[in-house]
Design goal:
This protein is an alpha+beta fold and about 240 residues long. The protein is built from 10 helices and 8 strands. The protein has helices at about 90-100, 110-120, 120-125, 130-145, 155-160, 165-175, 180-200, 205-210, 215-225, 230-240, and strands at about 5-10, 10-15, 25-35, 40-45, 45-50, 55-60, 65-70, 85-90. Strands 1, 2, 3, 4, 5, 6, 7 and 8 form an 8-stranded antiparallel sheet that branches. A hairpin with a 2-residue loop joins β3 (about 25-35) and β4. α4 (about 130-145) packs parallel to α7 (about 180-200) and α5 packs across α6 (about 165-175). The longest helix is centred in the last third of the chain and has 19 residues, at about 180-200.
Amino acid sequence: MRNSIEVISYKGTADAHSHSHTQIVLPLFGSLHLEVEKHQQPIHFGQACYISTSQDHTHLAEQDNRCLVLNALPIWDHKIESEFNFINLAPQAQAYLPFLSSLTTEANNSVKTHQALNLLEHLLPIPQDKISHSDVRLTKAKQRLDKDFQASWSLAELAEDVHLSPSQLSVLFKRHFGITPKQYLLNRRLEEAKVWLSSTNKSLDYIAYQVGLSSASVLVKLFSKHYQITPGRYRSQSFSS
């Protein structure tokens, strides 16, 4: 098995072949052509090539290059195929490459290497399934927010409650539901406020308290920004319809 992190220079060309592990090729300088499953594209610094397990691939290198190669990432299930073989890297990911490259000289520091590779989940669109291993915890987090939306939740408290780190919960929740836990909680509170506004004559201060907001002014500000209509106008339209 190859090392988790390698820095290599591609030369000439090679016969098409495949691996029994996943691989990501990230040029550090220079460029080369990579072909994955008959799809060929030149790549250079700021780009990456994802190669899923058993995908046929080859290269053509006509100029000097130096590439960071990541093999069998612990956060990429080898059973999951990448939807896109070629991607552009965000600036944060580009800035992280020199640090990853430096780890090739720390072969004995497996813990540091493992932690560094796991951070890629936040920087790269790592191929994976529907996060089945986290479904239960994410569903539990969502249920807590649905049930106790009036409570003053913090991300750290919610993460501890479902046995995830705050960063893991935020990233996985957004990937799974499309929004962060904080955004979901706000949406839940404002939806509840709509129910109060359309069915009662309670004051805005009273409604704000019932949905977990600190004051009527906060309710007006958030409601107006979210729905492009003030709570008072929304109430008037609800009662007149």
